[in-house]
Every structure is written in C-alpha cells, then in structure tokens.
C-alpha cells in the first residue's frame, strides 16, 4: 500500500481495495476487460485499476436495482434501519483504512479523510433512524362519508452520481436516505475516486444489504456520458440525485426530462465570506482559514470571495496572511499536513489562471502564488489582496488554495456584491451586531448561511442551494423527502348502511 499507516490498517486497506464493480450483489469486471487506472495525486503512482463500465453494465445494474426494489420496499422501516446500522458500524470500525484509501485516491490529509469517513457514517446512522419517521397524514375530510389519507412511498430506483472531492460522504448522503426510504440505488462515482465507493459497497455487502439494493458502476471520464445516459433516461430509474458541477447538472437535467424524473442537484458554488467591523477578528480569521483551505480549497461551500469591511481590512489581511504562510503543505499521509495536492493538472491550471487574471486586474499578491516543491500537483496556499469584481474569482469557483480579499464599505454594498452571482449554495458572515445578523442572513440569496461559523454540513441539517447551485436538499428530514412520493387515498362509502 502507498500510505504510511500501521500494519493493521494496512491489512484492512488491502482487504477493502476492490478492483471490480459491484452489481446485483456480485463483483464484476467489464465484459471486454476494459479498465482505467486510479492514481494517487500526491505521488502520481497507480493505486489500482477498476472496470470501465459502459451502457450494458449500467443497464444490468438498473435492472438489478429494479428487481431488488420489489422486496426492499416491503421490509419494515425498522428492518431496513437494522441493515443501515450494521453498515454504519462497519464503516466506523474500518474508518482508518477507509481514510487511508480516501486520502490515497483523493489527496486530502489523513485526519481530514478520517473526518469525512466518520461524517459519512453519521449520515448512515442518522437515516437508519429517520427512515422510521416517514409519517403519512390524515387531512380533515371534504366529504362526510369519506376520509382523506396521505401515504408516503419510496420513489423507486435511484441513480446517484457523485464527485471526487468528497468521495465517501457524498455517497452516504444520497444512498443512506434512499435506502432508508425503501429505494434501491445505482451509483456512479467519479473517475478519480472510485475506490472509496467500492469499499463502501464491500462493507454494505458485509452488512448483509441484499443483492441489487446498492450497486456501484465505475466508469472513466470517456464512458461517464454513456453510463449517465442510461441512468437519466431508463424508465425504471425514478430519481436522479447528482452532486457535481453546474455544467454537468444541466446536462443531466435535460436528459432526465425525457422521462420526467425526480431530481436532486447539488451543484457548484461561489461562496462569499464576509467580515464586518463588529466581528470577532481572530475567530473570523480561523473560520476563513478552515473554510478556504480545507480539502485544499476543493469544496463546493468553501469561501471563494472574502469581503472585509474597510476598518478591519488591513488587520484581517495581516493576521490571515500570517496563518496562511504557516500552513503545512504535503502528501496527505504525512503527519501534520494541512493542505494536500490538487486533484489533477486541470485544477492546477485553473488556479494559476485565476491568479494571473486577478494580478492583471490589479490584485496584490500577499503570499504564495506558485507551484509547491512537494510535487507537480501541489500549490502554495495563496492570498491576494485588493480584489475587484471584474476578476474571474468573482464569477467562478477557483476550487484551489487561493484566497482573494475584497474591501467593502457598508452592509448594502456587500450584500449586493455577495448576491451578484449565478450561484447560491453557501454564504458566511461574521458580525456581533444582532440586528445586522438577521438583516444580512435574510438578504443573502443562498441555501445555507454560516454566521460566525464556517462548518455547515451535518447529517441532521438540510444541505443544498438555490439559483444555479441546484435543487433539493440532502441531510435532515427534508433530505429524505426527496426519495419519497406522496400518495393521496380518498376512502369513501363510510356512512352506515340505511
Ligand atoms: P463534475 O465534472 O460535474 O462530475 C461529477 C460527477 O458527474 C462525476 O462522477 C463525473 O464523472 C460525472 N459526470 C460528468 N459528466 C457526466 C455525464 N455527461 N453523464 C453522467 N455523469 C457525468 O464535477 P467534479 O469536478 O467531479 O466535482 C466538482 C464540482 O462539484 C464543483 O463544481 C463543486 O462545487 C461541486 N460539488 C457540489 C457539492 C454540493 O453539495 N453542492 C458538493 C461537492 C461538489 P467523471 O468523474 O468520470 O467525469
């Protein structure tokens, strides 16, 4: 194995490292033997090869999920909850090995990877319980001899498509509520990070989750559209749950229109992070570091535009830059590392372009700005000051370790700037003025707002965006509703016979 962990974790890692897809309860290769390599972005070394599935395998997985749905939906919610609890326990038991695998294929520091695995497990634990609280309704009747009842039913087969930046928790956030609600799932993980998905499937199998209930179809970048087409057009698939870029979300939405599928879209963001005069400055600095540099800046909710009010701008810039300079960059499996590599060369190129564009428009480089000596996919944590709205960072996700500081005058100006984007996923602000807290929270056109807090995600809270950041919510009781159909029963003829 390629990470420096203990012998016990190492053996566990090997046992969870799968090189086949998981369809209908069996580990299968692509029929013609087509495979693609999964590499460690820190070292460039190949970790494994997995099947490059296409249309036929996607069809098989959908049909298997369709067959499994018939009996899975019939189980008591408590029985499905039991399977999910066993799955959760296994994920927790194997957390170190899963973290090593995640860090190896994705690059994030081991401690962060472990945090992701455990938050992913928390989704499973939470929905194991929530599945038992999918209550229906009775409504006061409009006919004296009839009763109005609302039943809740699973939507059916769910197609889940997930990104590389959170290869474990993005999966459980979809699969756990779907399974708890009585749906079955076909998952297509990202090309860069299929190993965490396969390891989760191995543990689902060990937990006894029946064949066909949870299927994982791995595919390369080239085959993804072919697999995606089956998942978004097959009549058996009743819902598509996607996390990824807005661009791909639009394609999948168009394709899903052909059979009017239910859709959940967790798409891109461009989060404003606002520091008002009244903020607790050291807390705001810590928050901005956590929000911006977690996962090397590759999170959909990470601060992309840091707005600092005039009076505290210079002090914030000084404190923040000092901390950024001290961040420890290196391979995720090395002790003390806080910022790992970026996922691929395209990510490095985008970061460089954003920096060049900002500098060409007058931004000042406060630290970093170039490649990092740790390797080709490492980049120096960077701070740019004197940012302006004309710059690309204002409009696009940077998805890398680059923090741009914008100066603003007042509340009205900053709320206008914060909302001046097609995205509406997460926003943050720091203020100790209670009136301002409510005014700004209500004015921000975002699905989630962190107030004096940078970490938003939790199994029990509704995660999701507005505008071009998507539709639907994940997590919480709102999240499970996305996997449920409402059925209205009108039961008539109830008056006593004459
Ligand atoms: P992406 O390119 O949109 O890919 C996401 C997934 O879609 C991958 O599995 C990808 O497969 C697949 N895919 C791409 N084209 C497809 C097609 N035509 N048909 C079917 N599947 C297709 O996004 P990414 O670069 O992996 O992830 C980063 C993006 O995700 C960022 O924009 C980030 O903001 C967003 N994100 C949002 C949230 C949220 O909760 N809102 C959370 C995390 C990330 P391949 O890997 O094989 O291309």
From TrEMBL:
Residues 27-488 form the Aldehyde dehydrogenase domain. GO terms for molecular function: succinate-semialdehyde dehydrogenase (NAD+) activity. Keywords: Oxidoreductase. CDD domains: ALDH_F5_SSADH_GabD (cd07103). It holds the Pfam family Aldedh. One of its GO terms (biological process) is gamma-aminobutyric acid catabolic process. Transmembrane segments: none annotated. PROSITE patterns: ALDEHYDE_DEHYDR_CYS, ALDEHYDE_DEHYDR_GLU. InterPro entries: Ald_DH/histidinol_DH, Ald_DH_C, Ald_DH_CS_CYS, Ald_DH_CS_GLU, Ald_DH_N, Aldehyde_DH_dom, Aldehyde_DH_Superfamily, Succ_semiAld_DH. The active site is at 266. PANTHER family: SUCCINATE-SEMIALDEHYDE DEHYDROGENASE, MITOCHONDRIAL. Belongs to the aldehyde dehydrogenase family. This is NAD-dependent succinate-semialdehyde dehydrogenase. It comes from Micavibrio aeruginosavorus.
